[in-house]
């Protein structure tokens, strides 16, 4: 069979005007390449056909969303049969019922120049080439995706190289939609009788719904798949680190309820992961938005969330909104499309499904509760780092070429910033202060059909949430424990039927398989109790090898633990805070502190014998430092230390670290600071009220300049006004800005402020310390203790708390929540310069 036999076998040339093509014209392959054409093809769905001339035929790929000038956009390109060279000039309409029925225009044409042997590149799965067209120019790549077992399609990615023709501010498909041959649009070609008849295609989703309906009627009923009542969701496998490689897309892991949206001719249902109908719980706003989509039938996979002002999803906020009936502010993020207008899309590659979904949602207004969940192509480790810094739960990594398969598998991998999962509530312990109040809940998980204890959870409750939860538990009291063996003989526990499921965040599993530093987040009404098992990260599969190990076995002890020497050593004599107590403080605040301290160069204040003994400053690694404290070198060769996880923080405690100070930049972007800190340091005798007024004045001046700032008590004498930045400007520019701002404040009220470090200049004034913004300078970390009497901590607070705020008023051992406004630290709106 010649290269064109497959092409001809699919077409009836007595009915279609497509060129049959002569015998393949053999020619000596040349490094100079040949012609290229991109045809805009409005078939069953709109796509673009890329064709490259080689050895007498046109190699062809169907690019589902068309080429993009943005190098970050990887466009799926399905390799199809070779076409005759004559096809490169074809414009017209392929009749209904014929293969590829619909209209075709020549969207671009010109010459392609391969960088290496094209045949070798095809065999290898990577073509690098230059295009010289009317619309497309510069270097491009076609990269073959690794085929999955049973995969029939030959999937590639079309990627624009970083060069002078790359653009991120233009969608060339929108700005230049018409033919370079005739100047006509694909719609005009379809409506021109001389070009072959009426345009027979389903319009893109972003077109008006009214225009789309006639196209849908043109489909043959025999080709339509029935809309399923419910599809069991695809679930992700937990893994310590995101997978690496170009075959993976990465999405934000939302902190909400997984919901399947079923649309059937205007009727909408919202189904939980277990198939329960929760449509009525979420009000009419979302169902109306879904019913208004330009489709007759669809099945969409997504997550319902409550967003804070920072844009971060919060499960506890979702719980509260639902309990109070406030559903108008909830948002549904759609991340997969399983079915659309008679087409079952589950066997399509993920990238193709997401492209269809994005088209379907393209016309949704910005104030709609319905949103498309974007994916990212940055390395998975980078994505997880960004997610953790922003206070997100983690990331979900998905194979770009994977079909949609129900159940848990390795096509979707979830990586978390914190350990959290669901547990069955087996009982509760009344508060020691008031026997009628809930003090903690007793949790468990199923293993081999038996309920195993996971320990108690005594934090994370408000007075109101504890009261409501206790009322629910009292309605399902049980006479005996649901546990077996010794675990069921504990006293002082009010046992309940194992029906309710709690979402819990925790620090680690102990060796006895119970939770450490656990905090209650809310109830999970969407998950049956008898399906709750203990999760632990699955090992990453070896290259070329499939791991079939189950990921639902009992929890294991943490992979790395830090054992404190002399845990009872007192570090703060006046307060009695020991080394063990310091570690426990950090365990409590770690969920809030983590994003501020990981992957940043650190400087330490150490007091191995307590704050009244010898203290010293350390910014380089030294003997005895735990392996969990990481080392790196900057561009000058200077050694820096940083931490990646809680074990690293525990390693600092082991050293007798009593203060943790941070650079204003991360390890990964060390020359681009992401914050400016103004430390308001009052001279002795300056009233606290004047320092508060100074903080407000700095905030107001920054607001006038178009910047949003945050407030932190320093744990010492003053306040820190923190200005989050997009990391764009270098250290010199940031420090100059900070200096000029401080001097401007000094000039506005020289009796109150000074920007000079000397003690003489500071007499009776507030020193606006801008020097913390130079390269290598540091500032106290949020939630870090201070080497001062009473063990105060530096603590982010909301601006609304300023009138009553005391700079050293929060002590170690407390675990204040991170104010919502502080989450904007991880999504700054402005850069300098």
Automatic annotation (TrEMBL):
EC category: ligase
Cofactor(s) named in the record: Mn(2+)
Entry superkingdom: Bacteria
PROSITE patterns: DNA_LIGASE_A3
BP-aspect Gene Ontology terms: DNA recombination; DNA repair
Chain residue ranges for the region called Disordered: 1-33, 536-560
Gene3D superfamilies linked: 3.30.1490.70, DNA ligase/mRNA capping enzyme, DNA primase, PRIM domain, Nucleic acid-binding proteins
Biased composition (Basic and acidic residues): 7-22, 536-546
NCBIfam families according to UniProt: LigD_PE_dom, ligD_pol, NHEJ_ligase_lig, NHEJ_ligase_prk, PRK05972.1
Reactions accelerated catalytically: ATP + (deoxyribonucleotide)n-3'-hydroxyl + 5'-phospho-(deoxyribonucleotide)m = (deoxyribonucleotide)n+m + AMP + diphosphate
UniProt-listed Pfam families: DNA_ligase_A_C, DNA_ligase_A_M, LigD_N, LigD_Prim-Pol
Alphabetical keyword list: ATP-binding, DNA damage, DNA recombination, DNA repair, DNA-binding, DNA-directed DNA polymerase, Exonuclease, Hydrolase, Ligase, Manganese, Metal-binding, Multifunctional enzyme, Nuclease, Nucleotide-binding, Nucleotidyltransferase, Transferase
InterPro entries referenced in this protein's UniProt entry, alphabetically: DNA_ligase_ATP-dep_C, DNA_ligase_ATP-dep_cent, LigD_ligase_dom, LigD_PE_domain, LigD_pol_dom, NA-bd_OB-fold, NHEJ_ligase_prk, NHEJ_LigD
UniProt GO MF annotations: ATP binding; DNA binding; DNA ligase (ATP) activity; DNA-directed DNA polymerase activity; exonuclease activity; metal ion binding
Residue ranges annotated for the ATP-dependent DNA ligase family profile domain, each copy included: 323-458
Protein's recorded name: DNA ligase (ATP)
